[in-house]
């Protein structure tokens, strides 16, 4: 297999270049940060369009990358779900949100988790949204970068417009690999099969079942030939991996030739609310409990189980409300509820972080040196939990629904001096320059004749 490796100057094929065509000014006036690209990157303005559909963990990294691009003089826009949370997040970074598809809350924040039938209804809706929205917004761009829930339709638009395309992901577990089976996907059956190569072939077939008909119908409408493997067409031969090398190591991650950049972190200098500061100062560091964008997938009665388990360890609780709308179980003053908050600052002040195992939360907690208890629910979360345990910076909870006893046992390990020391040591290895690395590579993508010599971590 081909391993991920360092690149000094990446050839145009790295980025699935679709020719050197450039569109006219088009909608350039709508882009942010109208500056000239630094001389070493070339003299023309570079316009980058980024698109995603998914949870906060799929949106926030694009805000971080947009900020890094702007600092290098490029222009950036983000097409993302029109959730108010995401508009506020991008607004904080002065990056406008171009609405794409339905809100994520409307899909996941229901009493029951989305079903396979829901996925088969959503897939063609998102394909149609990408063809319609990206075709209009990408005119005048130099590069289209797509990520999030499989962005079928994005590369097709780039192909039609003759602009360069990059696929990026925030974890490697969904990339084809002979060393592990694929993650779960609607329509994918793994029953009775142990050959990973066969399972990944089935995964490609499942993707075709979800997206193929819609993709090829829209391609035909704009004069493009059909594609017979939607997944591999979306991924390209060289996907970008925007994950920290410590948390997501390169060994045998995929059969593809990955371009590693490091995690795309959005700097957050917001102060913590005064009331939260007072709570933190009033005693020993508390334990943070939150499940982010998990709504229907959040464990039942998790607030009660977590609060009682944390109290049994003699600790106070900071409870992240999140999309699950977690609330205290009583009026005791040892529990403080937070909504949108600077987690980069908060996690440096807590004794441990109990969470669902999203890529963003795992990285933020690791960077803060906070021990973790990961209670994975779906998708790649069990993989992040396993890596946290492997590194010795926390505990991977067995099962998605903790009990008082199981969470108490996990907290005992997470709150030990040994785990705290290990978490602090690993924190020093987490790199924070991933967004800048990616931004420089994107400028090379748009100007392949003027390589900057940037290394890929």
Care to describe what's here?
- The chain is of the alpha/beta class and 457 residues long.
- It folds into 2 domains: 12-265 and 432-446, 3-Layer(aba) Sandwich (Rossmann fold), CATH 3.40.50.2000; 274-427, Rossmann fold (3-Layer(aba) Sandwich).
- It is 37% helix and 11% strand.
- It is built from 15 helices and 13 strands.
- The chain has helices at 56-71, 84-92, 105-108, 116-137, 154-161, 196-221, 230-235, 274-281, 302-312, 343-346, 359-368, 381-391, 404-414, 417-427, 434-446; strands spanning 47-51, 75-80, 97-99, 143-146, 164-169, 240-241, 259-260, 287-289, 317-320, 335-338, 352-355, 372-374, 394-396.
- Helix 4 crosses helix 6 and helix 9 crosses helix 13.
Q: Would you summarize the structure shown here?
A:
By secondary structure, the protein is α/β, with parallel strands linked by helices.
Task: Detail the topology: elements first, then pairings.
Blueprint: E1 47-51, H1 56-71, E2 75-80, H2 84-92, E3 97-99, H3 105-108, H4 116-137, E4 143-146, H5 154-161, E5 164-169, H6 196-221, H7 230-235, E6 240-241, E7 259-260, H8 274-281, E8 287-289, H9 302-312, E9 317-320, E10 335-338, H10 343-346, E11 352-355, H11 359-368, E12 372-374, H12 381-391, E13 394-396, H13 404-414, H14 417-427, H15 434-446
Parallel strand pairs: 1-2, 1-4, 2-3, 4-5, 5-6, 6-7, 8-9, 8-11, 9-10, 11-12, 12-13
Helix pairs in contact: 1-2, 1-15, 4-5, 4-6, 9-13
Quick tags:
disordered N terminus, 457 residues, Rossmann fold, six-stranded parallel sheet, alpha/beta, seven-stranded parallel sheet, globular
């Amino acid at each position: 297999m081909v391993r991920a490796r360092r690149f000094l100057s990446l050839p145009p094929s790295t980025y699935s270049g679709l020719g050197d065509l450039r569109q006219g000014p088009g909608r350039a006036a709508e882009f942010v940060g109208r500056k000239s690209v630094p001389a070493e990157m070339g003299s023309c303005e570079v316009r980058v369009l980024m698109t995603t559909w998914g949870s906060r963990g799929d949106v926030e990294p694009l805000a971080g990358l947009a900020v890094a691009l702007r600092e290098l003089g490029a222009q950036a826009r983000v097409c993302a779900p029109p959730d108010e949370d995401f508009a506020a997040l991008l607004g904080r970074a002065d990056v406008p949100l171009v609405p794409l598809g339905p809100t994520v809350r409307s899909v996941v924040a229901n009493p029951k988790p989305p079903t396979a039938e829901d996925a088969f209804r959503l897939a063609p809706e998102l394909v149609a949204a990408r063809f319609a929205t990206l075709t209009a917004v990408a005119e005048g761009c130099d590069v289209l970068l797509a990520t999030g829930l499989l962005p079928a339709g994005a590369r097709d638009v780039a192909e039609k417009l003759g602009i360069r395309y990059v696929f990026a992901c925030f974890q490697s577990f969904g990339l084809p690999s002979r060393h592990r089976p694929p993650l779960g996907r609607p329509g994918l059956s793994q029953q009775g099969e142990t050959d990973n190569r066969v399972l990944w072939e089935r995964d490609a077939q499942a993707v075709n079942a979800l997206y193929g008909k819609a993709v090829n119908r829209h391609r035909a409408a704009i004069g493009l030939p059909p594609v017979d493997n939607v997944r591999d067409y979306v991924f390209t031969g060289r996907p970008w991996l925007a994950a920290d090398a410590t948390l997501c190591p390169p060994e045998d991650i995929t059969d593809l030739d990955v371009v590693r950049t490091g995690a795309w972190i959005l700097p957050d200098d917001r102060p913590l609310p005064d009331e939260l500061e007072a709570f933190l100062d009033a005693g020993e560091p508390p334990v943070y409990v939150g499940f982010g964008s998990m709504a229907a997938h959040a464990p039942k009665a998790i607030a009660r189980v977590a609060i009682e388990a944390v109290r049994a360890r003699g600790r106070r609780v900071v409870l992240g409300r999140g999309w699950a709308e977690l609330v205290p179980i009583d009026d005791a003053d040892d529990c403080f509820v937070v909504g949108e908050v600077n987690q980069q600052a908060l996690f440096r002040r807590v004794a441990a972080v109990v969470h669902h195992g999203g890529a963003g939360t795992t990285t933020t907690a690791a960077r803060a040196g906070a021990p973790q208890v990961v209670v994975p629910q779906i998708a790649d979360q069990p993989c992040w939990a396993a890596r946290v345990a492997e590194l010795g910076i926390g505990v991977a909870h067995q099962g998605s629904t903790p009990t008082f006893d199981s969470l108490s046992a996990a907290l005992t390990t997470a709150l030990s001096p040994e785990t705290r020391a290990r978490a602090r040591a690993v924190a020093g290895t987490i790199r924070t320059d991933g967004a800048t690395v990616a931004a420089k590579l994107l400028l090379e993508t748009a100007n392949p004749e003027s390589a900057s010599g940037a290394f890929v971590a």
